[in-house]
Structure formats: C-alpha cells, structure tokens
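Margin note: ligand = NAP.
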Amino acid sequence: MNFHNKTVWITGASSGIGKGLALAFSKQGANIIISARNEAKLKEVKLVCKNPDRVQILPLDLADFSTFQEKTKAANNFFNGIDILINNGGISQRSYAVDTELKVDQQIFEVNYFGTIALTKIVLPYFISKKQGQIVVISSIMGKLGTPLRSAYAASKHALHGFFDSLRAELYHDHIAVTIICPGYVNTNVSKNALTADGSKFNEMDEATAKGLSPEEFANKALKVIDKQKKEVIIAGFREKAAVYLKRFFPSVLANAIKKVNVT
Ligand SMILES: NC(=O)c1ccc[n+]([C@@H]2O[C@H](COP(=O)([O-])OP(=O)(O)OC[C@H]3O[C@@H](n4cnc5c(N)ncnc54)[C@H](OP(=O)(O)O)[C@@H]3O)[C@@H](O)[C@H]2O)c1
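Resulting structure:
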C-alpha cells in the first residue's frame, strides 16, 4: 500500500471505525489529521498512533458547517495539503419512524448527510486545483437497504450514495477518486451513541454490533480498498452482503425476510 507521506483527514476519529482507520494509516507512515467533537478522546487516539508526531488534532462538529472553511484551511496548512478526505463521522438511530420526532430525523441528516457533503464541497476546490485527491465515504449496509428502527439513518446513508455517485462522475476528468465503503456490523459504540425517538442516546450495546468485525480488522480491509481507489465496496459478514444482493436482484424476497427479522 502506498500511503507513506500521504496526508489523510479523518472525521469521526475519536472512536470506533475512525480511530481504527487513524491507527492503520499511522502504521503505513501517513500524516493524519483527526477530527471529531471530543478533543480529549482525539488526544488519546493521537497518543496510541504509531507516529504521534505526525498526527494533528482538529476538533470539528459536523453539524456546524460555518466552521468548515476555516477548519479546511487549518487542515491544509498542517502538512502542506490533503491527499485523502475520509468522511466517517456519523450517528445511528434506534427508533420507529412513527415515534421519531422530526428534529431527530433532521439531526441525523445534519451530521450524516449535510455535514459530510458540506465538508466535501469545501475540500473539493483544493483537490480540483491540483487535479489529485480521493474522497472516501463511510456509508453502511443501511445505505443499500432499510430495516426497522433505522428510517432516518438509512435515508441519510442512501442520500450519500446519490450525492457521491453523481460527484464521482463529475470529477472523472479531474482525476479525483470517490470511494464509498459500506460496513456491516463493526464492534464500536455506534449503538450506544445512536439516537432514540426523542433524540436521547440509546446507550446500549447491540448484540450484533458486539459480534461484528473489530475496528482494526475493518480498517485493514478498508485501507486495501482505499489504496485501490475502488468505487464502492461492502465490508461485511455473509448475511449482510447477501441482504444487499437480495435487495438488488430479488427485492420482494428481502422485503418479506426483513419484516420477520428481529433487528435491534
Ligand atoms: N459500527 C458499525 O457497525 C457501523 C456500520 C455501518 C456504518 N457505520 C458508520 O461508521 C461511521 C463511524 O461510526 P462508528 O461505528 O465508529 O461509531 P462511533 O464509535 O459512535 O463513532 C462515531 C464517530 O463519529 C463522531 N461524530 C458523531 N457526531 C459527530 C458530530 N456532530 N461532529 C463530528 N463528529 C461526530 C464521533 O465523535 P464525537 O462524538 O467525538 O464527535 C465518533 O468519532 C459512522 O458513519 C457510522 O454510520 C458503522
């Protein structure tokens, strides 16, 4: 893999998948900029990276778009440019659509969709001016299908696919790659941090999430995909992958199966 001396900006790097990606890129000799809201946790991540002196902390709230111009300027100044932007930060959901307050749907979209595209739009002109760069989006299996308790989350991830598929086509002549990665279950705090109907945290570890890939395993697979500049890849177990193929080729079969599955 060729990440040595490349500069990678990772959002949502204070925990889970983003932290796993930071550690993996650090092992590969990359310069890393790590962002999230929790600065104390970002400091902890920096300390466990292989090359902490080549890790910069840039606190960022994905729902506060007004700061993105200034943050991108700072990110560009740390190591003289950015090579790869990894849009990973996000929040999940554990509530039925009928119960979920609209403000919660909006909050999930603000972070997962608008935060991601707003940051990308600000980084893009830098990439276009040098005719080089890669944008990575951490979507989800929920970006390919919908299950109970995830209506806003699945919608926000589906929206990312529409946006970034269009963007990939627009950027073809600028030599900028767009890589969408759809994880299945990864053992992180995603369910604990998920929003319930009134916007409070779910605060429980799902069994399926606990049994998922470790962030380290996920990150190792993701780096290979990023290195090859793949367009869209699923990194998941057999059942989650099979569900995506059923949705594509036999959507009614999947719809019938999903209504019977006890999804947590
Ligand atoms: N784990 C899974 O099974 C799974 C499966 C499919 C997709 N994903 C996706 O993977 C990504 C990472 O999730 P994870 O599993 O690693 O969960 P996690 O452990 O809860 O991490 C989520 C990360 O997003 C950051 N974040 C949340 N709200 C933010 C905001 N407003 N501004 C900036 N950063 C924010 C969090 O940092 P702060 O709280 O410090 O801001 C944290 O670093 C998400 O996009 C998620 O949808 C996860």
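The mean pLDDT is 97.
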